[in-house]
Specification:
Blueprint (H helix, E strand, L loop, with lengths): L36 E2 L15 H13 L3 E5 L2 E5 L2 E2 L4 E5 L3 E5 L8 E6 L2 E6 L3 E12 L3 E3 L19 E12 L2 E4 L5 E4 L2 E6 L2 E4 L4 E4 L2 E6 L2 E4 L4 E4 L3 H7 L3 E7 L2 E3 L6 E3 L7 E13 L3 E6 L7 E13 L4 E6 L19 E23 L6 E34 L5 E9 L35
Parallel strand pairs: 1-2, 2-5, 3-6, 4-9, 5-9, 6-10, 9-11, 10-12, 11-13, 11-14, 12-15, 13-16, 14-17, 15-18, 16-19, 17-20, 19-22, 20-23, 21-23, 22-24, 23-25, 24-26, 25-27, 26-27, 27-28, 28-29
Antiparallel strand pairs: 7-8
């Protein structure tokens, strides 16, 4: 057991060469208060949980949008619907005591181009969806539930199953206060969205909670997650398609959330990162359970782009099956059939700060060795960590590292072991790790990918 530099003053260590820029917050769009409130019962909704009310709810939403905006209100009872589309300047309000229940019939979810595992492919659109819209809001104290009659993520046809809530190219998005329950597919999936807020949600399900996919200026605040896969996952496309489109996920703020994960991580960044991920801030969150690591940053050669400027602080971590933090930048996720070749395909990574982290009996504190030697992590800070762990910190292929005030009791082995790491606070380290193996070079596909070509289902 041991501690690293626990007693040394902060002035003994250099600060990072450049502190990551704070994420930009969503920019509110001008509200339209038309005073319009529509009850889909006026269009024939039965609300008995058996009769499909899709047409009535959709007609109410469409009328609300064409009249300049307003609210469609679902009050009382169970509203059974297939996919419904929310238009601009429209609020879908599911009142307390009301349930929006997804249809069990896959045919009730149209097949469109959907983002799935980093590519645009044909698939079934989400239960509640919006596309090319602005000022879209979902709110209320009610429930939105997927049908358990649609198991798995991919149908026998090879088409992706519907997400629960899916938003594509929406500017000004607000999802607040609802309870969601999803089956095996992703729960909430914003793609190409800007200025989005997810607040006060209870997100339960058998897959990912919120997948932020090539979005800008996103806030996830005061949400409670209990999911079977990542509670929150940040993505930006895979392979040459994502790299060519080049729409990063950037300026994401996650605050005051509670996470319980049953299969993977509380927060996963990657592995679909081919347009880049940057300026992410996570503060004041509780990671109560994770099957693997509470925080998992992941990508691989062939993705290209970057993961930069990630700051996480004031976290409480317990119940982690593998540990607190893992970085895997060598072999995470499926290799795309059209990878980004050569040096451009090796992601640029760095600007990571983890501070004021409290851990309780995590098996591993930090595992960060799967890092490409040709592009080391540039900037990595561990500051003010406390608690207990089974094994300590292992770092490889990093520069500009700061380790400061890590006061964690380790039950087995040294607290810190490094290989090819430079920086400050690397005192009392164990012998170097076994040298990492340089991964093979990634060769671009021949013939090369061109935007718009059909690639089929992701391999």
């Amino acid at each position: 057991m041991g501690t690293v530099a626990a007693a040394l003053p902060a002035t003994a260590f250099a600060q990072p060469s450049a502190a990551p820029a704070a994420p930009q917050l969503p920019q509110p769009m001008p509200a339209r208060d038309t005073g319009l409130r529509i009850d889909p019962r006026e269009f024939g909704a039965v609300v008995d949980g058996t009769t499909k009310d899709t047409a009535a709810v959709q007609q109410a939403l469409d009328r609300c949008a064409v009249l300049g905006g307003g609210e469609v209100v679902l009050a009382g009872g169970t509203w059974l619907v297939g996919a419904i589309r929310v238009g601009s300047h429209t609020t879908l309000r599911v009142e307390e005591g009301a349930t929006l229940q997804g249809s069990p019939d896959l045919a009730d979810y149209p097949v469109l181009q959907v983002r799935w595992e980093g590519r645009w492919v044909p698939g079934h659109i989400g239960l509640v969806w919006a596309q090319e819209a602005q000022n879209v809001s979902l709110t209320g104290k009610g429930r939105i539930l997927a049908s358990d009659a649609i198991p798995g993520r991919v149908a026998q046809s090879g088409l992706r199953h519907p997400a629960l809530l899916e938003f594509v190219d929406v500017r000004g998005l607000s999802v607040t206060d609802l309870h969601t329950q999803q089956n095996d597919m992703w729960s909430i999936h914003p793609v190409y969205c800007e200025d989005a807020v997810f607040r006060g949600l209870t997100v339960h399900g058998r897959a990912d909670g919120i997948d932020v996919d090539s979005c800008r200026r996103v806030v996830i605040d005061r949400c409670d997650f209990d999911t079977v896969d990542d509670c929150i996952s940040l993505k930006s496309g895979r392979g040459m398609e994502g790299n060519t489109i080049a729409r990063p996920t950037e300026d994401v703020t996650i605050t005051d959330c509670v996470f319980r994960d049953q299969r993977w991580a509380c927060i996963g960044i990657g592995s679909e990162t081919s347009a880049g991920i940057r300026r992410v801030l996570v503060e004041r969150c509780q990671c109560l359970k994770a099957h693997t690591f509470a925080i998992y940053l992941k990508t691989r050669p062939g993705r290209g782009a970057f993961i930069r400027d990630i700051t996480m602080r004031d976290l409480d971590v317990s119940g982690a099956g593998y540990g607190f933090l893992r970085l895997n930048f060598l072999d995470s996720g499926k290799q795309d059939q059209f990878p980004v070749g050569g040096a451009d395909g090796i992601p640029d990574v760095g600007g990571f700060i983890f501070e004021r982290i409290r851990v309780k009996d995590v098996p591993i504190l930090v595992e960060a060795v799967n890092i490409h030697p040709d592009k080391p992590v540039d900037g990595f800070v561990l500051r003010d960590l406390s608690g207990t762990c089974g094994h300590g910190i292992t770092l490889a292929n990093m520069r500009d590292v700061v380790v400061e005030n890590v006061d964690v009791k380790v039950f087995s082995g040294p607290l810190l072991a490094v290989n090819n790491v430079t920086g400050r606070g690397l005192v009392d380290t164990a012998a170097p790790l076994v040298p990492t193996v340089r991964p093979p070079d990634i060769v671009a596909a021949d013939p090369p990918y061109r935007l718009g070509m059909t690639t089929g289902r992701p391999n």
